[in-house]
Amino acid sequence: MNKSDIVSPENLVYQKPVLMNDNHMHYCPGCSHGVVHKLVAEVIDEMNIQDSTIGVAPVGCAVFAYNYLDIDWMEAAHGRAPALATAAKRMSPDKMVFTYQGDGDLAAIGTAETIHACNRGENIAIIFINNGIYGMTGGQMAPTTLDNMVTSTSPDGRDVQTMGNPLKILDILALLDGVCLASRQSVHTAAAVKKAKRYIRLAFENSMAGKGTSIVEIVSTCNAGWKMTPVDANSWMEENMFKVYPIGDLKNI
Q1: In whole angstroms, what is the distance from residue 183 CA to residue 158 CA?
Q2: Residue 98 falls within a domain, yes or no?
Q3: Which of 15, 138, 190, 234 counts the highest number of beta carbons within 10 A?
Q4: Is the confidence at residue 56, as pLDDT, over 70?
């Protein structure tokens, strides 16, 4: 018998989400992915839609979501998650379909799929993890990398004169008529975690209600790619990332 089985509900402080299995998470200490996985699992469980949920994960750190959440998953080629999610939702409109993508995937390799799925107003939810870097493949510069930010491919910092400005992809998507929700959140504090969970649930509810495309961007850390401790990475994110990617709603219909 598990300890949670003998704890009365009024005394229960924390319980592992039902949908999260016992596989050991491989994410780096301080990584935001594990927190967001937990929120997704809790929302699906609370909505009681485990048997009617389809998750789509592409290449990158985001792909490992299928290893930790016990729902139906499809794995997409790099950047192609919105296209695959479109097919899944159109074939099974009664399902709650969402993608789980990083910034190198959604805002670079998959820019076309992302923009066109949102422009069509596909009834899917997109969970977008933005840490401003390619985390899995070696810490390279991404379209979302900040001005002067050091990466493995911009060792002297991103030069906007030659490398362009940070791509605020959520701002672009919010302008599209097919998008019903475009919200930018974070999970760096307990209060932020609670708020992010509310928006993830809203995105999933929108998918089920056929309101169009919902995108929840989670501004995140990649302390391994940033070469920082988890604590320093959180501080750096607050001081630098939030200036370029401010927390809040861009669109909520």
Answers
A1: 26
A2: yes
A3: 234
A4: yes
